[in-house]
Design brief:
By secondary structure, this protein is α+β, with helices and mostly antiparallel strands. The protein is built from six helices and ten strands. The chain has a single domain, classed as Glutaredoxin (3-Layer(aba) Sandwich), CATH 3.40.30.10. α3 packs parallel to α6. It starts with a strand and ends in a 6-residue tail after the last strand. The relative contact order is 0.26. This is Thioredoxin family protein. It comes from Methylovulum psychrotolerans. GO terms for molecular function: antioxidant activity; oxidoreductase activity.
Length: 185
């Protein structure tokens, strides 16, 4: 499976709205997920080794971001018929197992991933309080294995800066991961 990197950050691009079913049975929108200082939108799944390597770090950083006014949401957009590990049932299990402190949503139509321009899992989009894109980088130096515990928390530091200033860092290292599994029909 080839690893993909998303394109560079399109600073200022507005966050597309959505209405998606969460593993909690509720329908969530962009407004429901945002925090007063911004929003982190993550495209993740269960089967990707790049995501598996950082589940604990995603949870850690989402909790820390929540405390500074940044909301977080995770969206799963893969073709669940072709990739049953990413089914809604398995999404629920993953959210419970890892104690996600954020909504975990199913993008069954894949329209939300297309509107965001998501290309891989994990793919991170960091927005300021005005829901303008300011970060499109990686979580940290982790790949298919977690990086050292003391590795620089790139996404967290970027989102801290966005919460404080509204602006993301000029230099960003793209995330890397498995491609979104697009439906063929």
């Amino acid at each position: 499976m080839a690893a993909l990197e998303p394109p560079v950050c399109e600073f200022g691009k507005p966050a597309p709205d959505f209405a998606l079913l969460g593993v909690d049975g509720c329908t969530w929108s962009l407004a429901d997920c945002r925090g007063p200082k911004g929003l982190l939108v993550m495209f993740i799944c269960q089967h990707c080794p790049y995501v598996q390597a950082i589940h604990d770090r995603i949870v850690r950083d989402a909790r820390a971001l929540q405390s500074i006014g940044i909301g977080s949401v995770a969206i799963m957009s893969n073709d669940t018929a072709a990739y049953p590990d990413d089914s809604f049932v398995n999404m629920r299990l993953a959210a419970a197992q890892h104690q996600y402190p954020f909504p975990y949503l199913l993008d069954e139509s894949q329209n939300v991933a297309r509107r965001y321009g998501a290309v891989c899992t994990p793919d991170f989009f960091g927005y300021n309080a005005n829901l303008q894109l300011q970060y499109r980088g990686r979580l940290d130096a982790s790949r298919k294995q977690a990086a050292a515990p003391d590795t620089i928390r790139e996404l967290f530091i970027a989102m801290q800066t966005i919460a404080a200033t509204g602006q993301g860092p000029a230099q960003q290292i793209p995330s890397i991961g498995c491609s979104i599994k697009w439906k063929t029909h």
